[in-house]
Structure formats: C-alpha cells, structure tokens
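Field reference: sequence -> structure
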Amino acid sequence: MEDTFLSKCSIPTILCVNLPLNPLAAEPLRMPPLSESVTPSARSQATTPGILGKPTLGIIPGTRFLACDSRQRAAWAFAGLMLCLGWTGCGSRTPAPATETPPAATTPATTTSPATPTPAATPAAGGETTSSKSTGGRKWLGDIPYDVWFDDPLAVVANSQTIAAPPNMAANSGTGGTMAAADVPTTPKPAAETPAATVAGGAVDWKQTISADELQEEVKRIRNRLTQQLQSTGTYSGNYKDIQSDGAVIAAIGAIVERHPDELSWKSNAKFVRELGGQLREASKALGKEGYDKSTAVFEKLTSVLAGSVPPDVGAADEKKPFGQAASRAGVMVRMQKAFDWLKSNITTEGKLKSEQETVMHETIVLLALSVVAADATYDSGEEDDYKKHAQKMIEASRAASAAAKEMDFSKFQEAMDKVNKTCSDCHNDYRFADS
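Structure field:
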C-alpha cells in the first residue's frame, strides 16, 4: 500500500518525505529541486491520509523537500530527533501540575476600569512552559493542545492578537480606569435666589425699592398737576378727588424719604412734606371756594418747603410717623389704580413698551413703592395673615412688571400686569377700605 508520510521534527524549512516505491510506475516520482518552492497546487496535493487515519499536516509555505534513500532517512531522523530534544524537549519532561487561577474579585457595577488581562505563560529556562492546564479532560501545553490536529498549527501558535475591550468599557474608561470627568453625572446646583427688596409687614430696603430720583420725579409731577388744578375754583372743583389722592401720595413719599438712605434736597424737611401732604388731602375734601382756598394755602406752604424754606406757621411735626398714621391708604390705592389703568390701556404692544419705556418704568416703580406702603402693618388689618398674603403678592407682581419694563420684555410685562389685576381683585373681595 502506498503511503506518504510527512515527518516533522521542529524543522520549519526541511521536511523528509518517504517516497512510495511503485515498481509498476512507468516513471520514478519526480520531486521539485531543493531550490524550488512548492507551488500552491503542489501544496493542495500533498495532504493524504496519515498513519493514524487522520489527515497529515499540510505542506507549509516555504518548505523544501529532499528525496531520501533509507540511510539518508535514518540519518535525517536521528539528526531531527536530537534537534527536537535539544530545542523543545519534545515533551520529555513531565508537565507541571495544573495551577488554577483564582477567580478575579467581583468588580462593583459602578467601576469603569477594565479588568487586568491575565499575562501569557512565560517560557522557563530551556524553552519550557512553566505550567500546563487541563480543561474538560483535554490537556494543553501553554497555548498548544496535545490532541488537536490543526490545518496550520504554526499560524495558530503565532497568532498573538489581543482581544479588544468591549466598546462600552473603552468608551467609559479614562486614564487609569477612572471615568472621564465629562461622563460623571453631576447634579446642577440651584441658582441662588435674589432676596426680595421688600417684605410685606417686615423690614424694607427702600434703596432697592425706589430710587431718590424716582421719588423726586413723582413729587415733581404731582406739583405740576396741582399747579394746573389749583388755577381757579372751577379747576379745583373738577379735580378735587385727584387732589385728595395726590395729597396722600405726597404724605407717603415724605414718610419714605425719611427712611430712605439716599439724599434729596429737601430730606431734612421730609417730615414737613409728609404733614403738608396729609393736610392737602383733608383740605381738598371740601367743595367750592372753601375747599379751593384751603387747598391753595396748603399747596403754597408745600412749594416753599420743597424749595428749602419752611414757613413759620407750618407747625410742629413728629419724626418718622408710621405709614398707617402718615398717609391715607385709600388715597395711596387710588394712585396705584391710576398707574395700573394707564399701563393696561396704553402699553398694548411691544412697540408701545419700547417707545414709552421711561414712563412705564416710572409707573411700575411707583406702583411697587406704594404697594410696600399699603402693606405696612400699622394700617387696619395690616397684621392679619390674609392681608399680608395679598400685600406680598401685590409687591411681587409689581416688581415683576418693573423688571419686565426694564428688560423691554412685553410678554413678561403682560403676565405681570395680569397678576397685579388678579391680586387687586382678590384682595378687594376680602377687604373694603373706607376713605380716611
């Protein structure tokens, strides 16, 4: 029977072939010269059944062949055996007992560091692998199995490709296995709230509520109106209700200036302005010439005090009267209603808000300042919880309207004015304020 046997003794470049002796062959089997490389077609033809009934190793690229007689084969076999024993030991030593690798410590779910790969077995002196292993009854020597027939064993052994880490692991791992800063979820800190400039029934930061310039501007506008309304008895009679309201606002502004940290030209006489404002409100309640004369007399004194001259007949005035005693709440609320009506009727578009910004800002600031005055606890019901809630809502809505006017944000302005309107309605459903 013809057999082709491929003997390999760890010599990657020379293989001895046991040539079949066929006396019936017409021509002896020709082998390629030593200098020629085996062609792909020759390689494919070289795999024949082996002595164990399994396919023999395929011819490896670059392998050269020698046609040998019996003596040459014996010499080559002996030389190959010696070389095998000297190079790899050919399995002459008993493999070291299998060493089980302890299981890796369980990594917490939150850890993003990739597991440290187990290093490959290190060859010991003489080229031996320091340990062998057995898996499911199958013995291994390093990375080479004892009982597996590979089509290309050298290529398998030479394959040292490293398996890449899972994409999710690679994406989430940073230097040293620490999660990158961008991947760490952080809870945004809430923005610090700006403290309210005013608190109903509590301390008031008047500087943040209304500036000295806005106070001066309001006094100037009231004085100009009174000059027109007190031209004659007729003009007085047609506007006496408005004069009453302006008198209450003058009194409130005098009380604010007493408490305001900034300077005004008449601040030292603010208590007299406060008292004369109250007198003007009372004087304008009378109709006809009587009311006109009384109101005109008070207005002349007020003009002198604002100019820096205090008439001798003004009388004494207490320092810093409470708002509940200094200014009529009903008169103050009339001015608040006028501010709201003008803003609601005239500022109906974004263009109007921009073109009338200066007036809008003044009216909303006055609305805010007078809301604070009306919230004072010295007024009737001022210490009741329901009243405080209404007053505080009014302050907040007025402040929002003032801020929107400053930013020229028409949408926010409309929203704030709606809140002002609702707060007024809710408050007056619970409270009725008599004129005083």
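Note: The radius of gyration is 53 Å.
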